[in-house]
Amino acid sequence: MKRKLSILVAMFSFIAISYAQLPNGSYAKNFNLKDINGDTHTLYEHTNAGKPVALDFFAVWCGPCWSYHNTHAFKTAYETWGPPGTDEMMLFAIEGNNATIANINGNGGNTKGDWVTGTPYPILPTSSPNSSQVVNDYKISSFPTVYMVCPNRKVYNIGQANANTIKSRADQLCPEGQQYDNNVQLFNFEAPKGLLCGTLAPRFLMQNLGENVLTSAKIIISIDGNVVQEKNWTGNLAKYDAETVLVTGINIENLSFGEHQLSVKFEEANGSAEALPENEATIQFKIAEHPTDVTVRINADTYYSEVSWSIKENGTTFIAAEEEKLPTKNYTKNICLDRKCYTFTIRDSYGDGMTYDGTGMAYLIVAGDTLVEIKGNEYTYSKSVSFCIDENTSIEKSYFFENNISIYPNPATDNINIEFIAPESGKMQIDVYDLTGKVVHKEMVDANDKEIHKVTIDNKIKPGIYFVKLQLGNYMSTQKLIIQ
C-alpha cells in the first residue's frame, strides 16, 4: 500500500556559507601544485621525509590574511627551521581563492598588496594550471586558515601562530612516538549519518601506521556491543598510505527505533594481532520510528563539487541527512525520514547557484511524488525548503482548494483573516508555523462543502515570517504570512 503523506512546504533563500572545518586529527590528502615560479611541490614528499608541513591558506583580498602575512611568522619559521635553516619542517602559502599570479604580486584592484617580495617560502596559487581541489579537500571555510600536517598525515588547525608557536605546535602535534610492525588507524567514519532504515553501509578510511606493508586486516563491526559482521580486507598499503573501506550488508530492520551505537575496530593486521587493539571508532545513529522513503535528486552544472545539501530536523541540531560535496553531476541519493518537520537546504560554495552551463535542478521526492523543484538560478549561495511529514494525507494538491484561500492583511500588524471555500464538509485544521517548523497557533474549524468560511486570528504572534497550513481531509494548502 502506498504510504500517504501530508507535506508542509515553505521556501526561503539566504546568503550564508556554513561548512564544517576539517576536524583536528583528520587524514590530510596529498596535493601536487605548481608555485608562482612554476616549480612543482608535493605534500607527501615532505611528510614521507619525516617533516611536519605548515600550510597558510589565504586570499589576496583578505585583510586579516594580509595582517598575518606581515607578522612574518611563516618567513621566520621557514628561514629558521625550513630548508634555509635546520631543514626539519616545510611551509607553504596557498592562495585559496583563484587569484592570478599578477594579483599575488600586488597588481590589480582586488589585492591587499605585494605578497611575493620578501617571501622566501613557496606560494601556491589555485588558479590555472592548478585547481581549487586543495581548498575543497581541506574544507577551507574562512581565510586565513593555518594547518599543521604531521608526517603521519594527520592535520591540525593551529591558528595564526607566531614563528615560535608554529615550531612548538609541530613538536607537540607530531611526536615520533613508538613504532610498530603492524598497526592500523581508522579515520573519517563517514557513515551512517542521520536517520536510517533497512540496511546501513559504514564507510571509513583505513591507514597503515605500521612499519610493514599492510596486505591484510581483520575488521570487526558491532552494533550496541554485539558483533554483526567480520570483514577480511586485502590490499597493499605502504606506511602512512590509506584506503577507503565500505562495509555492506548490515541489516538493521529488527533494531528498535531510537539511538544505537556502531563500532569498528581492527582485530588483526597482516595475520598478527593488532598492535593497539584499543584503536576503535564509534558513531551514533538513529532508527526511524515511522520510516518514509525520500529521494534527493540533483542535476548540477559543471561545477558539481561546489554543491552540497542537508536535511535538518527542525527545532534541533540533528542532521537527518547530508552530502558535503556532490560526487557526480547527475546525483541521486535515497534516504529515510521520520514523521517530523525538516528543512532541506541546497548550497553552492562559489555563490552562483547551478547556472554555469544551463540551469541545474534539485528535486526532493517523497514516497514517489515530487515534492520540491528548485532551479539552479533561484539562489546564489543557498536555498532552503521547510516541510513536514505525517501519515494522513496525499501530497497531491487540490487546485480548487488552493485557489480559493485568501489571507489578509498580509503583511499583518493586527488581526489576521483567513477566508476559504471548503472542498468538502469536515474539520478544518489551521496551523501557523514559524521557520523552524514550530507551531505558534492552531485551531479547528467546522467546514461545510462549497461554503465560504472566514476565520479571524487575534494577532498575538511576534513579528516574522510564518506559514499557515490548512488541512481538511485529503486537502492541504500552505500559505506564506508576514507579521510586522
How would you describe the overall organization of this protein?
- With 484 residues, the protein is mostly beta strands.
- It is built from 7 helices and 36 strands.
- Strands 1, 2, 23, 24, 26 and 29 form a 6-stranded antiparallel beta sheet that branches. Strands 3-10-9-6-7-8 form a 6-stranded mixed beta sheet. Strands 12, 15, 16, 19, 20 and 21 form a 6-stranded mixed beta sheet that branches.
- The longest helix has 11 residues, at 163-173.
- The chain is globular, with a radius of gyration of 27 Å.
Overview in brief:
The chain has 484 residues and is mainly beta.
The average pLDDT value, as a whole number, equals 84
Known CATH architecture of the largest domain: 3-Layer(aba) Sandwich
Question: What is the count of β-strands?
Answer: 36
Large-scale geometry:
globular
- In CATH, what is the homologous superfamily of the largest domain? Glutaredoxin
Number of helices: 7
Q: Examine the coordinates and then state which fold CATH places here, giving the name of the CATH topology of the largest domain.
A: Glutaredoxin
Number of domains: 4
Main sheet overview:
6 strands, antiparallel
Distance between the termini: 45 Å
CATH class of the largest domain: Alpha Beta
Radius of gyration: 27 Å
Which regions contain 5 or more consecutive residues with pLDDT less than 50?
Answer: 1-19, 392-399
**What share of residues is helical?**
under 10%
Strand content: 35-45%
Class from secondary-structure proportions: mainly beta
